Amino acid sequence: MIQKNLKKCFRISATGILIVSLASMNSPYSIKAKEKPAQNDYFIENAGFESTPKENGAILGWTQTYGDTGFSIDRSVVKEGTQSLKMADSLSTKSAGIRSSMARVTGGQVYHFDASIYLQSGSLNMYLLYFDENGKEVAKFSSGYSVKSVAANTWLSGSVSGKAPKNAVSARLELYSGVASVTNAFVDQVSFSWEEQLDLTVSDPVNLGEAVKASLTSSAAISTRSDGHSELYFATNGVPATFYAIDGDTGERLFSQPIPGADTVWAITEGSDGNIYFAGTNDGILYRYLPAEKRIETLGKNPSDTWIWDLAVSKDGKVYGATYPHAKVFEYDIQTGEFKDLGTFKDGQKYARGLGISGDYLYVGIGSTAYVYRLNLKTGEKEEVHIPISGGNNTVANIEGYDGKLFIRVGGSTVYVLDEETLELVNTIKYTGEISPPSPDNGEDMYYILGAKLHRYNLKTNTTEEVSGISSTDHTTRKFGWVEKDGHSVLALVSGFSEYMQYDPMKNEVEYIYPDVEPQGVPIQSLAKAPDGKIYLGGYHRGMSVFDPRESKIIHNLSWMPQPEGIGFFDGKVFFGTYGGAKIYQYDPAKAMDFGNTPDKNPGLIHDIEDFQDRPFTLESSGNDLFIGTIPGYGELGGSLSIYHKQTGQWEDHRNVVENQSIIGLAYKDGYVYGGTSVWGGGGSNPADENAKIFVWDVKNSKKVAEFTPDIPGLDADPKMIGELSAGPDGLIWGAIDGTIFAMDPKTYEVKKSKVVYPSTYAASKWRPIYLRWGKDGLLYTTLGRNITVVNPGTLSTMLIKQNADLMDIENDGSLYYASGADLMKLEVHPGETSFNSVREEAEEYRSRNMLDQPLYKQLLEDLKQADHQLEKGNGPNAIEFLEKAKEQINKDSLSKFISLDAKNVLTASLDSLIRQPK
């Protein structure tokens, strides 16, 4: 029955708008008292760029907001008409931006700008900006287009959308090229419009707090003490950071202390006196930890800068620090306790990033333009060390010198090996983090991590090889060292997750030791609801937790779980697809939690997909089988379809089911698995294909029976990612392509319905699938375009719930859970509550803003009154007649000058909602 009283709560009308008081009569963007509303509120002046520029070259209706050049009217590349807007941002040191004229809006509504874009180079951002009645910007929404992710030299459909805040009264489009981008593009046919929303009520979100906790560190030191035992030293990131001393044999905590004023410690090293020196990134203070006394000393603030990136020590009792933002280096004398500023090592640069000492030389890595300098510590002479990227846009992050060779890491993983005497390049290798010192046993073997694998470099032969026979590791190396164990040397490694690993080269075995440290909240990386209603969450870098909605709290937190990319449920168990190395862990909720890297643990490692695979993002199951799709490792193309058969306990791994493409979506139906792909492979790789595919896998016969790119009418860009996929209750296979939803016949593969809800920018993750979850209300809840969006599967009408959210699921009671950074959020979605009172309020609001003329306003109120009266008498058909009459009146062409387009759209949708309600 139609509700006659407006509930006093956060309410979204039939159009999805929040009804509030928005603007006074004196608003600079309101129509003056005797002025008639414009026929089209969504008018953008010179939207097609056909007007002649002003004498000074300024573009009519548009205002340059960033830079002073770069925009002009052009006739060479045009979508429609004879002219377009040309963006020629040739400077990588300045940004360029231009804004449209203003369009009027109503708070709580969803609007979008559309434009035709022809991108030749660089990247172009579209910003939807909302302003209040005082002209103050109150919200900004963006979409980005880059030649790295969309086709160049062709016309594309660009779009940006967003919900107007309750105090917004106007909107503008901004076209923008960032500081670092060199952009050449053309824009034409700009338009602004309103988007009707589903009739749903959404509660205020509730923050349930940090969901996954782990221990992250940015640097470490490994020391063998005088009695022969080893100790680890690092600070975990947090506010404040906490310094730890850990027993290297047992993981026992020997000492810990918060460091006020520091949230991250990148710089830590062992001094020539056996004490540990470290510094943070906020206050410039150098600290010393004394292992024998288990206490920390504050040595004072260095004279160079506040942000300390790295520390290095010399044999003569000096500690050197690399700083930001003036690329300076300081010296601390351990014996005298005095500091010295050694000055800026490269004028015009900000980063002195990596430090290394070899013999009489201090080596300094510079950024963000890459240079290497060395300082003779005896003579004070400084000279540049040339590397292949000298003068290029990068930063030198690590410098280490061993046995006459220099290892200089630039950026993420490129390492130049130089002969220290001649300074000539002798090799180029890749690793993440750092390289180990040479083995004390042979003086030749050094180790590093690349692509989740341990590798060996031989100093004598200048060659590298992968260490085979041990399991993959996703460790981001913070420190390598050598310690004694069982009478010989073993390689020790502290990871960026505060974990400790020992590799025995003689036995070719790895042992993991877990230090006793306090975890802190990390960003949520994955989220999935189990059949019993519990919410399983994975952490970025590390960690897993379980949230029980009935108790409204985290009931388990596991800090050591490798980064879960995907979470699935099968046969009463929980399966985690983890990064790196694509390892699968199984957890039995009926048993006690006891994490480990063997199948007998809980969660325990049950399968390593191998074959250069890295990230298992999608998991699906049938009654008998578990299906997993993966992204390959660094530099690789070609994901894997892995299948676990419950009856036999066996695994099948099928790489390159679709050649050179990753698998990011899986759906099972009637003996077949439907898979969706991404053209992107592992980090550092380039796509081999233009279009993503769908494949169909015959489970019984273990073979692919179809592969194709679906034909989707009106798709705004080539499909680069297809996934997730879901078998819908209507018998169709539903899928997502960035901001597009579609449904396909599982037998003919014909697309039966589709809608471009948001533009296909592919600006976010190239691997994470779009979530598709079916609610008990029959609606489809998605993360289309990385926005939580509800879709009516029958009409494909939508409602935007939350922008910039790409992890969500629906609990058994209908509550919606999503991730916001490290926090788990909850909100409730219910059917809408459109009522006679709510429509009257809408009309009153538009009348107060002079967007609805008085006679038409009075007629609308009279029709609503009569419809309400007929309903009270039990005469539903007569009530509908009055509602239809009201709708007809506000949509008459002859009366369009008495009502704004915004008011017409909103009131029409609200009246339609009343008409549809049971009478």
Automatic annotation (TrEMBL):
InterPro entries: FIMAH_dom, Quino_amine_DH_bsu, Vgb, WD40/YVTN_repeat-like_dom_sf. Gene3D superfamilies: Galactose-binding domain-like, YVTN repeat-like/Quinoprotein amine dehydrogenase. This is Outer membrane protein assembly factor BamB. It comes from the Bacteria. Pfam families: FIMAH. SUPFAM superfamilies: 3-carboxy-cis,cis-mucoante lactonizing enzyme, YVTN repeat-like/Quinoprotein amine dehydrogenase. It comes from Falsibacillus pallidus. Residues 837-916 form the FIMAH domain.
